Structure formats: C-alpha cells, structure tokens
Amino acid sequence: MASERVKTVGGARRVFFAGLAIIVLLAGALVFLHQQGRRRDFLTAEQRNWLDAHVGKIDVLLGFDAPPDAFHNEKGEYVGLWMDYLEVIERELDFEFVFHNFNTWDELIEYSKVHDKFIIPSISETTGRKEYLTFTESITRIPNVVVTRTSMPDLKMEDLIGLDVATMENSVIRAYMDENWPQVRCHDVTEDIEGLQCVSTGKYDAMVVNQLYATYLVEKNGIANLKITCETDHPSIQHIATSIKDPILRQILDRTLMQISPQEKERILRRWLYLGQNRIDQLRAILPVLLMILSLVLAMILGVILWNYTLTRQIRLRTRELSEEIAVRKKAQLQRENAIKALQRKNEELESIVYISSHDLRSPLVNIRGFAGEMKMDHRRLYDVLRTQQFSPEVQSQLEELRESSLEAMNFIETNAEKMDRLLEGLASISQTSTATFDYECLDMNTLVQDVVNSLQNSLATIGGKVTIETLCSCRGDSMGIRQVFFNLIDNAIKYRHPNRLLEVRIYAEHNDRYCTYCIEDNGIGIKPQYQEKIFRTFHQLEPAGSGGGIGLGLTIVKQIVDKMNGQIILTSEPDKGTTFAFSLPCFDCDTESPTDDSD
C-alpha cells in the first residue's frame, strides 16, 4: 500500500508540473503571437510598404554627447533616454535605423535643412524649424527649472532680474528668456555642464536648465552645492522630427509612439530622471521591486523544496544520458581527427599533383613553341620561293592572304604557349611557397630592400621610374620570402604605372612594440573599389590590365608568404591616384637578436 501511495503521489506531481509547463508555454506563445501581430497591424499597407522600401536608408541624426538624452558612457557605448526610446521604436516597427553621427547640434540642424529620409529623436518645436521639419506629438514634457547654489535663497523667476544667469546658446530656453524675461542678464554656455559648473563656482548666480539634464549632470559630476529652487512656466517639450519632405515617415512614427504605453514611457524617463534625486527617494522607488524580488525568492525556495522529491531520479537519468553523450562525443572526436588526417593527406596529394603537373606540362609546351618557330621559318622560306614565281594577280592575292592568316595563327600559338608557360611557372611557385619551410632570422630590411630595387633597376631606368627608400626597421622573417614580397609589389607598381606621369614609389615603415608595418606606395593607375577585395585571388588581374599586365599570381604569392609568416597585408587605393600595399611582420632587435616583445 505504501509503495502504491508513493507511486500515486509521484504521478500526480508529474501531471501537475507537466500541466504547469504546458500552460506557461501556451501563455508565452500567445503573448509572442500577439506582439508579432500588434507590430505589423498598427501600420497601414501603404505605410508598411514605404518602410520596407527604405530598409537601410533612414538615418537617425545623433552622435554628439548630450547627456542624459544620448551620450557615450565609460565603456564607449552610446546610451541615454532617447537611445532607450529608439530601441522601443525599432522593436515595435521590426525595423533598424542607420545612425548618422555629428560632432555638434548645429552641424545636425544644418544637415536637416537640406536632406530627407531621417529622424531627429529629441528636438523642440519652433517656428523657424517648422520651415524644414515636421514634428510628432510630444514625447516628453520635462520642467525647465532654476538652479542656484545652496548658499543662496530660493529664487523665483522674478528674482532673476538683475542677476547673471547661464543658458544654453541657440536653445529654446534662451529664446524663452529673451522673449519673456529680457531684464535678466543671460550668458551663453556651449554645454549644460559648463553652465552648472559656473553656477557652482560663483561665476554666475543661477542657471535656467532642463530638470532632466540638471539632475543627471549634478549626480554624474558630483556637484554638491547646487539646488533646484523653482520651475518656469515653460516646460521643455520634446518631439521626434522628420524632414518636411517625408510626411509618411512622420505618420509612421506617430502610429508607433501610440503603441508605447504610458508605463513604458514612465519607466524610460525615471531611469534617467532619478539619477539626480535623493537616495531615500530612490529607495522608495525601488521598494516595490525589492518586495517583488523577495516574493519570487520565497516562491523559488518553496519550488526547490518540492522539486527535491524528484531530483534524485532526474540525476540518475541525466547521469546515464551524459555517459551516452560522452561516448558519442568521443566517437565524433575520433571521426573528426581521422577526417583531418585524411584532409591533410588530400592536400599533400593535391599540392604534389599541382607541382608535378606544372613541370610535366612545360615539356610539351617547349616542343610546341619550338615547332611553331620552325614552322614560321619554313613558312618564310616557302613564301620567298613562291614570290620568285610568276603567278596571276588573283593567285598572288590568295597567296598573300594565306601568308598573313597562317603567320597570324603561328604567332597566336607562340603567344599562348608563352602565356601558358608563365601560368605553369606561377602555379609551381604557389605550390613551392605553400610547402616551403621558412628560415626565420633577423633581417636588415634597408639592405634587403635596396638589393631588390637594384635587381629591378633596368626596368626602372627604361620607364624613368624612381624608388625612394626611407629608414626601415628590422624584422623577423625568411629572407627569400620577404625578397619575393618586395619584388612582386614593386614589379606590380611598374606594370600598373600611370601612362601620363613618371612612376614614383615610396617605401617606408611604421612600427609599435610588437610589429613592423612596411608600406609600398605608388602613384600608378590605382585600383577600383570593386576589385580591391578580389585582388589577392588566384589569376585575378587589374581591369584594365594594360600592356604591362601579369598573369594574376604575383599578389596571390605575396599574400601566401605574408600569411605563412603570421603577418597581415592590406591595401588602400584611389583610382587614377595610386595604391599603397602595407604588410606587418614581428619586429626584431638585431643587436640582441631577439624579438622586441618578450612575450612572442
């Protein structure tokens, strides 16, 4: 009986937990489907189509620091009240905006006068701005307050007459003061924190400022001698603005803002407004949350107690599953190791095939080129013999046409045979580079690069090119490999020089504690942006290649050598102006014959 009772209790418990899990899953699914439907349903078909047609094309104009609206925190993250609003708006729209950053507010405003397809997430509505902007309904309504030192009496607006008061330049508050309180001596500051610090130090008597900004900045900067004495009759009302050319975008934003509940807006505002409040007020604000957390903890403790009844069986079951999983993983690991070994063998076989093929194919190519040359000589002698004979004009014309076409065909054979020979030679070089073992040593780069330039002196003299070598730092690498890199890059500059100016190549180096970066800069034809990512691929040539173009393997070999030495190569180029190749290698101190960074 006892055993049957235990089974009955255990079965009931399992049914209870299974039912609870099903209810939670169904509730989550319903909430998810409701949220998905709500995000799509509140827009009209026209508005949704317009939004879909402008994916990646709508800018958010921000970037400058204006805490707590939007600013960079200590971690370099861009945060703030309006970043929270943007996150909610993007979530509701299922849409991502593109951020367009500005250094100052004035730069942003000037941009908004002549462009469209943007939103300004935090801006006050003025008569002047209505000429080029359209505004949503108000989002936040923050009091503008008077801030003064704690040692001064509480000031009302009329008490500011005759005092020195700080206000933000070109702001709505300054316009309000000029219109309603012209008797007050207002002084412009470029940032709110600047004005608050001037009040704190006694330079000015007070500041009229947005309460949100004031409380945040006072708390953040630890200014202890300031207080808020009164509110103005002109609050700071913030909107989201769009270009007057985009009325449908403003309609979309209005509909989206209607989806944000008052509780959500209050939560966002309090997150930033309460930073400057008294600690006791903060504690009172979070007390309901603490009580909720305490209730959850008690519920969790009760849940743990109940769950312990079934935990032992679950542990046994999980232990068995883990044992099976470990066995499966060991088998998969063994299969992976075998696959890696097989792949390595295949790579070695492929490299061997490429190397052998590139050599074996060159033998018939030599015969083709030889016989093509003999055919040209025989062709020339036959033509000389026929030319001594007397033929009719018609036959003579046919012989001339036959001579030209056959000579063109033999030239084509020789040219393509030579091109294939260069390709096979390049493939052999790639295969040798991939299997070569590098001998790392300290390299005097000044001497090495000068030797490479000397080996190209005939080509440089022929075209009137000039190479300037600046002082180069030493590095750790393979001498033959580095020579090949510099030779190919300088030769590349010669091949792709500009037809309307003499070639100038500048070779210089930059370094830090760990790496030396060597730069080869030329004034050639440059590389178009669409080709820059492809330039290191096998057989890829510049477009147009020009008469001096190669076979598309030089830069492939360069990247292969640099990668094998654990380096990195990049390029920057501007069409019709030139190209700079830069590759980095570990620095080396030739005096101590050791890397400059002991950690390597």
Task: Describe it.
By secondary structure, this protein is of the alpha+beta class. Helices cover 55% and strands 18% of the residues. The chain has 17 helices and 22 strands. It has helices at residues 2-41, 45-53, 81-93, 105-114, 172-180, 192-201, 211-221, 247-258, 262-273, 279-360, 362-387, 393-435, 445-455, 457-463, 479-495, 529-532, 554-564; strands spanning 59-62, 71-72, 78-79, 98-101, 118-123, 133-135, 140-142, 144-149, 164-168, 185-189, 206-210, 226-231, 236-243, 440-443, 466-469, 475-478, 504-511, 515-522, 568-574, 578-586, 588-589, 594-595. The strands form 6 sheets. Strands 1, 4, 5, 6, 7 and 13 form a 6-stranded mixed β-sheet that branches. A 5-stranded mixed β-sheet has the order 10-9-11-8-12, with helices on both faces. A hairpin with a 3-residue loop joins β19 and β20. The protein is elongated.
Summed up:
This protein has 600 residues and is α+β, with helices and mostly antiparallel strands.
User: How many DSSP helices?
Assistant: 17
- Uncertain segments are 274-283, 543-548, 593-600
**Structure summary, number of beta strands:** 22
Look at the structure and give the mean pLDDT. Answer: 80
